[in-house]
Amino acid sequence: MGGMPRLGHWIEPHPHGIYIPPADAWVDPSRPVDRALVTHGHADHARGGHGKVWATPATLAIMDTRYGEQADPCAVDYGEPQRVGEVDVTFLPAGHVLGSAQILLEYAGERVIVSGDYKRRSDPTCVPFKPTPCDIFITEATFGLPVFRHPEVTDELDKALLALREEPERCVLIGAYALGKAQRLIAELRAMGHADPIYIHGAMQRLCDLYQTFGVDLGELRPATGATKAEMAGHIIVAPPSALQDRWTRRLPDPITAMASGWMRVRQRAVQKGVELPLIVSDHADWDELTATIEELRPKEVWVTHGREDALIHWCQLRQIKARALDLLGFDDEDD
């Protein structure tokens, strides 16, 4: 007698993605496949070249913008069940970026959630994370160490606004990832009452336009390219992190260099990147959010990927929750 099959026996983690044999589909594969379920549009989860792709409408639009039109897209709204092979699949909000989703897989009487990337903080640019009971919760651990406790976003952005008030002849140049982080910063500044024009690097334009087509109001945005130093003095400028040390910055009025990232908690990271004003703003769950989410869901097992797995696995085991690392490949696409 072989006994009862282990929980999640129908799921096969591989370095390049999670394969679901009864659905004959992959979740967030890092190489082209015939059938892909995609949690969100960041390049360590989404890519071009797939056959059929199931994703939210916003994620599909982001993929089209970044990687070219998808061959066989299947737009799935949040909470709308899909039958993929023998598996019931439901996309649920993840609160990470526009269109981001957790993927609930139901098969053989088991419920497995692949959370992708997620956060529990409010974000005016995307639908909040929806806690959903499950047997196995597959969680990221990007900031899976107790040292990572993110402050309030408004407190961090107040630092940038204060710097502008103190030195209005300069500008504040904020490095922020082009998908999700940049739009969130802008939307948060608008919610704080900052109505001045915000200048953006040309690499931000297409995705900012896309966010606005999905109803995210970013206010008045102006291209930094072509603007004079006098026009940009006293303003916030948002650019990709890679642009902070680029010759492009010479056109700016004595920029105060800032970086918006959860990694700014680590002082050495800020020093290495030449950041004058570190802003601890992340689109990933911090330690408290990771552990609180697991406590809320109380899954039978937790599978951990993309980050500092050991500490989170140890935390689970202390609470009699079975946990394991999946060792999926990640590319730190977001520089978060």
Walkthrough of the structure:
This protein has two domains: 12-147 and 284-325, Metallo-beta-lactamase, Chain A, CATH 3.60.15; 153-279, Rossmann fold. Helices cover 23% and strands 24% of the residues. The chain contains eight helices and 19 strands. The chain has helices spanning 57-67, 153-166, 181-191, 205-213, 229-232, 267-272, 287-297, 309-318, and strands at 12-14, 17-20, 25-27, 35-37, 52-55, 72-75, 82-84, 87-93, 101-107, 110-114, 136-141, 172-175, 198-200, 221-223, 236-239, 256-260, 277-279, 301-307, 322-325. Strand 8 and strand 9 (101-107) form a beta hairpin. The chain is globular.
CATH topology of the largest domain: Metallo-beta-lactamase, Chain A
The CATH architecture of the largest domain comes to 4-Layer Sandwich
**Derived structural class:** alpha/beta
Query: What about the largest sheet?
Result: 7 strands, mixed
CATH class of the largest domain: Alpha Beta
Radius of gyration: 21 Å
Ends apart, CA distance between termini: 49 Å
CATH superfamily of the largest domain: Ribonuclease Z/Hydroxyacylglutathione hydrolase-like
Shape: globular
